[in-house]
Structure formats: C-alpha cells, structure tokens
Amino acid sequence: MQHGQKKRKVRPAQTVKKKQGKEKQMQPQPVFEKERDALRLRNKVAIITGGDSGIGKAVAIAFAKEGADIVIAYHEDNEDARATAARIESIGQQCLLIAGDISKPAHCKKIIQQTVNRFGKLDIVVNNAGIQFPQKELSAITPDQLKKTFETNIFAMFYLVQAAEPYLQEGASIINTTSVTAYRGSSHLLDYSATKGAIVSYTRSLSAYFAKHKIRVNGVAPGPVWTPLIPATFPPKHVSSFGSDTPLGRAGEPVEVAGCYVFLASEEASYLTGQILHPNGGEIVNA
Question: Which residue intervals are annotated with compositional bias (Basic residues) in the record (predicted)?
Fold first, then answer.
C-alpha cells in the first residue's frame, strides 16, 4: 500500500481461533497455486531498447523462447541487430527492428507507433539501452558528455513510456535497467551512476503512478556483465580483470541476467511492482 492510501474492505471481517483447520475457515481461501502456461509470455509483444546486443539481446531471446514477439529498438549496429532478429525468428517468433536515437522524443513515438501498427498491441516495455564514458577526473566530464549520458540513459525512458502509455493495458509490465552503481557509486562513472540512481527513483515513482491501472513497473540492477559495452569503453587492463572482484569471482554472462526480466514480465511476478532485482555476483547492496 502506498503511504497515505485509504484502506478499503477487500474481504469479510473475520477472526479464526480454532486450534485445527484455521486455514479452512478463511474467507476467501488463500491462493496457493496457479496453472502456468508452458510459455510464460505467450502472445505477448515486447519492446526492448538496446536489444541488438549484450543484456538486451539475451532478454530478447529469452522472451522469444517464452512465446513473445519482439521489437528491438537499437541505435546503429545493423549487423548485431540482424543477427539477433535471425535468432528470434529461428525460435518461431516475429521480430521487428527499429533503428534510431532513443534520446529523441519523436523517435520514441515512432517506435511505439510502428509496434502497434505491426502487432496491434503492446504488453511489455524493457528500457534497457544505455551508454557510459569512463573518466578518471571529474573535470573531464564535459557538458556535452553529461547531456548525452542523461538523454540516452534516463530521458529516453520518459519519452518511451510517455509514448507507450495510451496502449498499455491492465497486466502490462515495464522493466527498467539500472545498475549496481546506483547503490554503491563509481568513481570513474560519475554521470553514468547518477543516471542509474535516477532510474531507481523513476521506477519506484512510475510504479506508484501506474498501480491504479494494474500495470507493474520494476527494475533490474546488474553488476558486472560481459557485454560489448565493456571492451568498447574500458582500458584493456580493466577489461582483463573485469568482474573478478565480485564474491563469485567473475563477471556475469548476459543470459544469467535475462531470467530476471522474464520473471518480472511474467504472471509469476504479479505481486511485484516498484522493486529492483540484483543479479550482481553476490555483492550486498542497500536495496
């Protein structure tokens, strides 16, 4: 319950004090099991930003294996995008590729409109795309870098959800990718970490906004994961030891993170909203 939310009657007032069969006397009876479709996302349509590679690619493939049709919004890597689409189609699901800059509101509207035109609906939005520019010195973060990082990592999430809102129905799910750096910080990723902290607050606030519509909003905060972003942005020495300082002693693979997104998008997470999952190799964070 949100703080300050007015309580309302949702079941008969009752007291059960019997020594035996207390549960049997409850009205209504607690629900202990549900029938589960073998494909947890059957007939769902999911948009995944940054779905051409890395975590987004793993999520796209995992969703497809659970029966979802996929829309991959990506920036410019056509080769990776086509390879991911081919894999999704080999599974038997449809895949729509949309290239462009998600930091532009007009492009986010285009993503939603093309999705609805193609599939007729929208069930899942995964805000996953992100960029980072490591800097050793605070003074090295230029205004242009700061603007670009925030526009891509957090502004784009606002734009895409704003465009998607008219098409999201009860039972829809929004999943935002944040990071372990939102919780412990990072001395060489100051602007990136700041956006990831903003995503945590955005997720919690957006969940409150959509709760009355029975639309769930959650997030995933990966730790070190072996994706193209790592060798593309970090120096070789850092890359060689990347993730070795986690309790499990290694970086995660994208597939090891994808299950969190499947769970949050599925009916199994029907009582979760405003929450963040932490696939980070065992680091304890103040969640």
Answer: 1-21
